[in-house]
Amino acid sequence: MVTPSPYAPSFTDLPMSNILVGTLYCIHYFNRAIISPFFSAPSMSPIHVTIMSFAMIFNWFNSACLAGWLRGYKVPTIPSFPTASSGTPSPRSAVVDLLSTVGAILFTVGMAGNIYSETALFRLRREEAQKRAAKKTDGEVLAGGEAQASRNKFHKVYVIPPTRGVFRYILYPHYVFEWLEWIGFALAGTAVAPLSALTAPVSASSIAIAPPLRRAPWLVPAAWAADKLAVPLPLPAIVFVVNAVTNMLPHARWGRKWYVEKFGEKAVAGRGAVLPGCSWM
């Protein structure tokens, strides 16, 4: 373990590129953790404490890794390859400027599509709940209590989205849009400046804060692309993309199976979970 530098830059000391990438992350989770569950979603099913605990642990580790990266600390790897926190500052290339701009655009498009898709689902659930509430007879209202019926009318009301718009070919476009968000986040992360690029003097040995990590096989394509383009590899952001896809893809597959069981193949209309026309995915 290498001792970190006594110089710890504050948020305002960081380059604008680092601040931008950190802001993108905060914007996403402000929507995901506050706006969506408390203001957009008509209702939420109870979450088991185990699932909640694992989600908290994942987000703690993920945010800690990203925070260290955005602060500019080095992530040494075996075999070594350029990272966005490499020790020696170098002039920022036009490719980095292009990739970071494209990344910010992809993040914006992905987040907008994600919000649009989820809002469409929430609207469909509300409309279905209103229809069911309108069909209740006076006897049912009197027997069950009007206040109770009104309070729970959105609970466990699910619909299958019609085959139009973003749901024309897949059932989980909001997942795909979120993946697009994080791919854009990773591309924007190629512009993250290392700690050694800041104004305060920092020794090269103080930038690395952990033993070298052995590169996983699924990071090879990203490392190869970064090497070919001669840009830093935003390692923590790439790992986040991999984690997001591998975590959400099984949920999408299970969700498609649930749609088939609940609404039938005819209602699913041959749509894939995240890949058009693919019943397996």
Q: Helix coverage percent of residues?
A: 55-70%
Mean pLDDT: 82
Order of helices and strands: HHEHHHHEHHH
Largest sheet: 2 strands, parallel
Distance from first to last alpha carbon: 42 Å
| Lateral strand order in the biggest sheet | 1-2
Shape: elongated
* Strand tally: 2
Q: Count the helices. How many?
A: 9
Characteristic terms for this protein:
mainly alpha; 281 residues; 57% helix; elongated; 1% strand; 9 helices; two-stranded parallel sheet
Brief summary of the model shown:
With 281 residues, the chain is mostly helical. It is built from nine helices and two strands, in the order H-H-E-H-H-H-H-E-H-H-H.
Explained architecture:
This protein is mostly helical. The chain has one domain (14-139, 155-195, 208-266). It has helices at residues 16-40, 49-70, 94-135, 138-144, 146-151, 173-188, 220-229, 235-263, 265-268, and strands at residues 77-78, 213-214. Strands 1-2 form a two-stranded parallel ribbon. The chain is elongated. The two termini are 42 Å apart. Pfam families: Steroid_dh. It is found in: Membrane. Keywords: Membrane, Transmembrane, Transmembrane helix.
